[in-house]
């Protein structure tokens, strides 16, 4: 409002009508407009928060299947009984897990006693792994009538998380290259270093091997491509196998093996039978009649 050029008496002014006078009509119009603007701001704010939440979710180091399941759960895209009924399928609506209430995403989140027990066992409020496990268990129970207690399911979730973290560490080994150097040998042994590259999309790997004598002089080197390699750990153990086979073929009988795959080196040094996916290759390596003096991690 522009200021008057000469002094005037103050008066009450209603800014939402051109006349400056209040009317019920202009008051109603003002209220409706304000509510609309607030809801617009609110919706925009929620949309920004949601976008940020799911951006964070996709960037987390979780298995893709867990992230996708959680995304479906959060968007109510799962075929819960409530959703199936909404699409006119003739189904029982009762929650299979707690036998109390209509099975829906809202029920799982707020009212399901089984879900509450699961989160209590895990000492969590809400997260992706339990939601994923809950839905898998729900499907097993509905389709195969397999029952499990909330405590057992919580133990399964914890074991799965531990296993995934272990594999993830193996697939992204931490290398300390600051002080990396080749340590010369004493005596007539040879040292064989191995490493592997892994192409996850084509499931291929390549082994790189170099054998050196006690003075560090290269005696032999080799690269070997492999098909059907399922993960980085398998790539490393195949490289290790090629390394020991090459040293044996060349007639070296006293060998020190060195690689950066801690898990593979640990398995070679272990007296316990390895029953993992790579167990057969570990056994192959251990059966080669070459005296492996030492299997060491070269992260030093
Ligand atoms: Zn329930």
Automatic annotation (TrEMBL):
Residues 193-288 form the RNase H type-1 domain. This is Reverse transcriptase zinc-binding domain. PANTHER family: BNAC02G40300D PROTEIN, RNASE H TYPE-1 DOMAIN-CONTAINING PROTEIN. The lineage of its organism: Eukaryota, Viridiplantae, Streptophyta, Embryophyta, Tracheophyta. It holds the Pfam family RVT_3. Residues 31-118 form the Reverse transcriptase zinc-binding domain. InterPro entries: RNase_H-like_dom_plant, RNase_H-like_EbsB-rel, RNaseH-like_sf, RNaseH_domain, RNaseH_sf, RVT-Znf. Coiled coil: none annotated.
């Amino acid at each position: 409002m522009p200021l008057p050029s000469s002094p005037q008496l103050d008066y009450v002014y209603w800014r939402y009508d051109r006349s400056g006078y209040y009317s019920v009509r202009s008051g109603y119009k003002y209220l409706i407009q304000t509510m609309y603007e607030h809801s617009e701001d609110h919706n925009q704010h929620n949309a920004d928060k949601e976008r940020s939440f799911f951006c964070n979710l996709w960037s987390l180091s979780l298995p893709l299947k867990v992230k996708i399941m959680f995304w479906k759960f959060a968007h109510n895209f799962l075929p819960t009984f409530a959703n199936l009924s909404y699409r006119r399928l003739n189904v029982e609506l009762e929650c299979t897990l707690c036998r109390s209430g209509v099975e829906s995403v809202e029920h799982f989140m707020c009212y399901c006693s089984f879900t509450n027990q699961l989160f209590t066992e895990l000492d969590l409020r809400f997260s992706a792994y339990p939601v994923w496990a809950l839905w898998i268990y729900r499907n097993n129970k509905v389709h195969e009538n397999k029952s499990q207690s909330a405590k057992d399911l919580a133990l399964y979730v914890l074991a799965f998380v531990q296993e995934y973290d272990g594999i993830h560490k193996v697939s992204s080994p931490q290398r300390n290259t600051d002080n990396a150097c080749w340590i010369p040998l004493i005596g007539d042994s040879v040292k064989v270093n191995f490493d592997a590259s892994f192409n996850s999309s084509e499931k291929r790997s390549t082994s790189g091997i170099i054998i050196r004598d006690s003075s560090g002089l290269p005696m032999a080197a080799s690269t070997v491509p492999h098909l059907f390699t399922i993960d980085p750990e398998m790539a490393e153990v195949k490289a290790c196998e090629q390394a020991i086979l090459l040293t044996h073929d060349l007639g070296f009988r006293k060998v020190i093996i060195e690689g950066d795959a801690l898990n593979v080196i640990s398995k070679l040094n272990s007296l316990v039978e390895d029953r993992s996916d790579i167990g057969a290759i570990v056994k192959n390596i251990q059966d080669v009649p070459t005296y492996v003096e030492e299997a060491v991690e070269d992260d030093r």
